Amino acid sequence: MKTKTEWNQRRETGVGEECGVFGIYDIDGKDVASSIYYGLCALQHRGQESCGIVVSDTRGERGNIAYHKDQGLVSEVFKADMLASLHGNLGIGHVRYSTTGGSTRENAQPLVLNYIKGTLALAHNGNLINAPELKEELVYGGAIFHTTTDSEMIAYCIAKERVHTRNVEEAILCTSRKIRGGYALVVMSPRKLVALRDPFGLKPLCIGKRGHAYVVASESCALDAVGAEFIRDIEPGEMIAITKDGIISNKELQQEKRAHCIFEYIYFARLDSTMDGIGIYDARIRLGRALAKAWPADADLVTGVPESGITAARGFAMETGLPFELAFYKNSYVGRTFIKPTQKERRSSVRIKLNVLEPVVRGKRIVLVDDSIVRGTTMANLIRMLKAAGAKEVHVRISAPPFLYPCYYGTDVPSNDQLIASEHTTEEIRTLIGADSLGYMKIEDLQTVVGDLGICKACFDNQYPVLEGKESRI
Fold this sequence. Notes:
By secondary structure, the protein is α+β, with helices and mostly antiparallel strands.
């Protein structure tokens, strides 16, 4: 079993990531590149550093694929002429966010491999906890790596297994028995689209249909973006294979224990998505209500930090009867500060991202709701801005418990020494950020937000659901 120090050292190498995946197979033979483009645009919040599209014409020669990927936003990487050049009725796409040190053009996905059985393309959301062991095995077997991602190891494993199996589905199943951690995969062979979700359900994945086209995506909002009807979530441990004959489901990997990432419901998923039967908007309203019951405040109004705290703030206002107001103007052309890769970039983003609406806050006692305090920099800046605009008091309420531990499954919660709550008490944090009061969501209230859904909340309670494939805690 690895120690926390060893895990933190591994994370500092920048191997893990949080991403969005998309795949589509149009059985009628229509080109799908533009649909992948719109699907990736809907998933842009899941990764802003690089993106890519791979397509195949299932009626053409095997291995006849086209692809393009690069660093940048989807709208920057793909222009009309580029999309027009990508012909094929089967394809996958990816938007990527890496941890510090992993943002390079080489790490952009989907990955494309040419090997003895043909061509394989793979897009991956998540992080493997046994990647070092896998890489060592592959290196000694002659593999040469061109990226620093876990995803390349998965692709190599599939290619290696495919030599000894009847089809790509069997190769993916064999590989899945070797990998440990959180993952959602979409894999494209020249004639098939395969999607797989880890047995714990740590990473989301769903499936939809548009006419005779089947679509898989990290979130249901991407199905909406391409006009596809949501069919269902792909179940934890389920693999689906899509061919010209339809869908085949395989549930050999399923297990009783589930551990859906609670952070998807608190922060990461888009507000209009539905995930494992739970509407994200409704979940965040419930977060705000639970927060208000636990930490009411004597105040004049409730506001939220755009966009992450707005819905929980509405729930807080509903529960308390306080008026809800928008206290900030958001510059929509600046990305999320949480997923900026360096502290310097985060600070710069905060300064140009939000501006206070002075008439709303002047002379008022304000409840300011957000979904998290990670390093404390952003919240301290916002409180200073509110008080400079005339706010009498700022009472901070956080719709998540304190972040105390890093995530090893692919969400970029930093290592312990960067988490303000791991080094300071709540009262110390309140003083450091300049709030008049501070209240965090109680960890026991998280389950009420998602009902009986099995959740992973290890970044709050240190109870990691999987380590080297076993139920355990680091």
